[in-house]
Amino acid sequence: MFTGLIEDTGRVENFHRRGEAGLLKVETSLPIAEIAIGDSVAVNGACLTVTEKGGRLATFHVSPESIARTTIGRLRSGIRVNLERALKLGDRLGGHIVSGHIDCCARLTRLESRSGNHQLYFSLPGEHARYLVEKGSVTIDGISLTVNSVSLEGFSVNIIPHTFANTTLEQIRAGDDVNIETDIIGKYVERLVQPWKTGGDLSMRLLAENGFVR
Predict the structure, then answer these.
(1) Which of 103, 121, 169, 180 is the 20 to 30 Å CA partner of 72?
(2) Residue 210 covered by a domain
(3) How confident is the prediction for the chain on average, in pLDDT?
């Protein structure tokens, strides 16, 4: 579990494809000594497992599913990536609840600067857009952000100067794809209230058992 607050922007050392999977090496200023083999780290929002470490480098195994669903497979040497270590019990939840499981990719369609802030406009598949609500939360390349507006075509976010300068958003350009994780709460609610997904009928008893009514 993560919060969407970026700890470091690492630099890709290299990415080697191994059939449908791959190995990703990232140079980071995170304390490597505190990271254990088998630990989870969010790389541009995707939860990956540390398989090797040494010096300032961390190596991650990237599964075929991660390559198919995220932008990880497009990484090349020198590209910066957002990094966040998994949340520890007792840590402050400064962003929002982030699982590190990417739902889809969105494309930046427009970027506007306003009073030092940056307005970013994205398009994304409609089946995922339904989980976005105005002033709700969304994770873009691992960054916890507030949704400014939602339309049939996509959504927008506002980026303050600090976030823009200390994440990979500083390098984003129109036409670039980003990893998107929508708010996990909306997906669980949908699962509970739609009979065609739960395999049963919606009832007051079902709502009560899941804490929605008393």
Answers:
(1) 121
(2) no
(3) 91
